[in-house]
Design goal:
Domain CP-type G: 68-231
Helix content: 25-40%
Pfam families: MMR_HSR1 (PF01926), YqeH-like_C (PF21516)
Protein name: CP-type G domain-containing protein
InterPro entries: G_CP_dom (IPR030378), GTP-bd (IPR006073), GTP-bd_ribosome_bgen_YqeH (IPR019988), Mito_lipid_metab_GTPase (IPR050896), NOA1/YqeH-like_C (IPR048422), P-loop_NTPase (IPR027417)
Strand content: 15-25%
GO molecular function, one term: GTP binding
Distance between the termini: 66 Å
Radius of gyration: 22 Å
Number of domains: 3
Structural class: alpha+beta
CATH topology of the largest domain: Rossmann fold
CATH class of the largest domain: Alpha Beta
Length: 377
């Protein structure tokens, strides 16, 4: 009888780190927890334990359909939605079609990781840029809050906005993987809740596996939802060790190159930029400081990659490059007067500084989102 009751209690429990229902039967499925771990407080699944204590990644994920099903529940609720996006990967982290899932519920757009932009950035221009890009993406937002969970910047303003717009609603926090959702909510838990728990935080995609409810003083909840996985982001494709390379952890230092037509810049072995045609002009690369840049002649670029990918053009290593899809070439004709960025989701962007016009190309693994956008800086 005691064994049956213990089993029923296990089935009803959820991981305090990622929100998944706990089970002790199958190590290959989400929520696996050794039976002895049920005696601990708070209880977390083995996956969260390994992430927190050993910084390990895990292949256990929730299917995309399940993510969308959970997100779709918001439309039938009275909710304030906080949509967190990553300023480093804005177009890659915006949830396309969000309004379709959440109905007429109000949205706050929290733009995280602003600490990664150069310190001399004009923040009013960034805010205006975000508002325009959000509108073009079909988002209707009540307010835009620029913030940094890492540096606790803008967090007070986000709380003020929540108080202003939520009324008697629950608060749902949504976002793509790895945009900082759990980090922001943990800061809220530490400052405004008596709960003795934190959400699992790591640099690995898909850390939160189910909705996690955090009670508020007025009986409402803040609900952390699973991150939406977009394969079009470089951060979803690379190995765990390479993820730490392409994701910057400090303000980016713009790298300016004066190029003649027929020159190429390699971003380690992650991708390349070709200046195919145009007058001599400057291009500014905004990528993680851990990604080495290598300039060469366009006519030698294919041969260089074929012979030195994973060696001179490293990272990724040869082993990890072999696991990525084949590269695809994207060509763009930049018209005169068009101040723009060539955006590579999850890797960064190249700002085209001059207004003379140019023909350029980007080579990255097949499926990675590459696009021309108005310059953010």
């Amino acid at each position: 009888m005691t064994e049956v009751r213990g089993q029923m209690e296990q089935e009803a429990l959820r991981c305090s780190g990622c929100g998944i229902s706990l089970q002790s039967e199958d190590q290959g499925k989400p929520g696996y927890t050794p039976k002895q771990a049920f005696e601990r407080e708070p209880i977390i699944c083995q996956r969260c334990f390994r992430i927190k204590n050993y910084n390990e990644s895990s292949s256990v994920t929730v299917e995309q359909d399940e993510f969308l099903r959970l997100l779709g529940q918001i439309g039938g609720k009275q909710a304030l939605v906080i949509h967190i996006v990553d300023i480093f990967d804005f177009q890659g982290s915006v949830i396309s079609g969000l309004q379709r899932f959440i109905g007429n519920n109000p949205v706050l757009l929290a733009v995280n990781k602003i600490d990664l932009l150069p310190k001399v950035t004009n923040w009013n221009k960034v805010r205006n840029w975000v508002q325009k890009e959000a509108k073009d993406a079909g988002l209707k937002v009540e307010d835009v809050v620029l913030c940094s969970a890492k540096q606790n910047s803008g967090f007070d303003r986000l709380l003020e906005a929540v108080d202003e717009y939520r009324g008697d609603r629950d608060v749902y926090v949504v976002g793509a993987t790895n945009v900082g959702k759990s980090t922001l909510i943990n800061r809220l838990i530490r400052d405004y809740s008596d709960l003795d728990q934190e959400l699992t935080v790591s640099r690995y995609p898909g850390t939160t596996l189910d909705m996690v409810h955090i009670p508020l003083d007025d009986g409402k909840y803040i609900i952390d939802t699973p991150g939406i996985v977009y394969p079009s982001r470089y951060s979803e494709l690379v190995s765990p060790q390479d993820l730490g390379v392409i994701l910057p952890d400090k303000p980016m230092k713009p790298a300016v190159y004066q190029l003649n037509e027929g020159q190429t810049i390699f971003f380690g072995g992650f991708g390349r930029f070709d200046f195919i045609q145009g007058n001599r002009q400057s291009f500014t690369c905004f990528v993680s400081g851990r990604v080495p840049l290598h300039r060469t002649k366009l006519e030698k670029a294919d041969e260089l990659f074929a012979n030195h990918a994973g060696e001179l053009l490293n990272p990724p290593s040869k082993e990890n490059i072999a696991k990525l899809p084949e590269w695809t070439r994207h060509e763009f004709r930049i018209t005169k007067g068009n101040k723009c960025d060539l955006f590579i989701s999850g890797l960064g962007w190249i700002k085209i500084n001059n207004d003379q016009g140019a023909i350029v190309a980007v080579h990255v693994p097949k499926g990675i989102k590459v696009m021309v956008r108005p310059s953010i800086i």
